Amino acid sequence: MRLATVGDNCMDVYDNLGKAFPGGNAVNVAVYFRRLGGEASYTGAVGTDHYGQLMIEALRGKKVDTSHVKVLPGKTAITHVELVNGERVFGDYDEGVLADFVLSDEDIDFLCQHDMVVTALWGKVEKDLAKIKAKGTPIAFDAATRPADPVVDTAIASVDYLFYSSDEGDTPQLRENMKKLHSRGPKVVVVTLGEKGSIAYDGEQFTVYGIVPCKVVDTMGAGDSYIAGFLYGVLSNKPIEECMRMGAANSSITIGYYGAW
């Protein structure tokens, strides 16, 4: 199984700990997918600074294919993070060279050599997804907490697996929103609900799954771990409930330590 991740990366800088960890949706999903035994690549851009070198070295250390990481003049993206009782609190974000990241035709051909392509709200490739879809490669997309974002409007018709997170719990309003999103293209819509588990809709029925209990140290990367586990299940031809269990189990590992990975 080969998973292509494309889009954002950043260094998560924990100012109160005096530490920085590689992160970002796409790179996180790649690392977590590799942790499960699959193959993964990351396509994106880093800067010519120390953090850019660190990002590439860290990904290679996790055996993620970095052959399509562009090194652009400037700074690698940075997100300032603070930990409050184990919960991440995001501060300022500096996009750095990601502001100039674009996919080439060769990049798209490379992505389509994989079994699935994964990107997210800040991946900056939403306008390219139709080209990838046209080549027959399935697409997964993480809308974070903003399923109504204009970026999602652009991407959704090309998306097979749409993920987003919500803190409202399993409500009639949530289910209605999932139905509306499903009607616009995705095969499956999945919403992660934090400690309340997750819920999926495939156009016919809703499936609900809880959590795998664990000690919470840092929730950074929890959602990305879930996505990686879920998609590993999809590419293993598992039923939706088992995919959800695999996502929850993968997430429980990640939140037991500091940093995304």
Low-confidence sequence ranges: none
**How many helical stretches?**
8
Largest sheet: 9 strands, mixed
Total strands: the figure is 13
What's the CATH C level? Alpha Beta
Q: In whole angstroms, how far apart are the ends?
A: 21 Å
Strand order of the largest sheet: 5-4-1-8-9-10-11-12-13
CATH superfamily: Ribokinase
Oligomer: single chain
Helix content, binned percent: 25-40%
What number of structural domains do the residues give?
A: 1
Secondary-structure element string: EEEHEHEEEHEHEHEHEEEHH
Estimated share of beta-strand residues: 25-35%
CATH architectural group:
3-Layer(aba) Sandwich
Average predicted local confidence, pLDDT: 92
CATH third-level topology: UDP-N-acetylmuramoyl-L-alanine:D-glutamate ligase
Shape: globular
Can you describe what's shown?
It is a single chain. Helices cover 31% and strands 28% of the residues. The chain has a single domain, classed as UDP-N-acetylmuramoyl-L-alanine:D-glutamate ligase. The model has no long low-confidence stretch (mean pLDDT 92). The strands form 2 sheets. It has a 9-stranded mixed β-sheet, sandwiched between helices. It has helices at 25-35, 50-61, 105-111, 129-134, 150-155, 172-182, 222-235, 240-254, and strands at residues 2-6, 10-14, 19-23, 39-47, 65-72, 78-84, 87-94, 116-120, 139-142, 161-165, 188-192, 198-201, 206-209. The protein is α/β, with parallel strands linked by helices and 261 residues long.
Question: Layout of helices and strands, plus pairs?
Answer:
Blueprint: E1 2-6, E2 10-14, E3 19-23, H1 25-35, E4 39-47, H2 50-61, E5 65-72, E6 78-84, E7 87-94, H3 105-111, E8 116-120, H4 129-134, E9 139-142, H5 150-155, E10 161-165, H6 172-182, E11 188-192, E12 198-201, E13 206-209, H7 222-235, H8 240-254
Helix pairs in contact: 1-7, 7-8
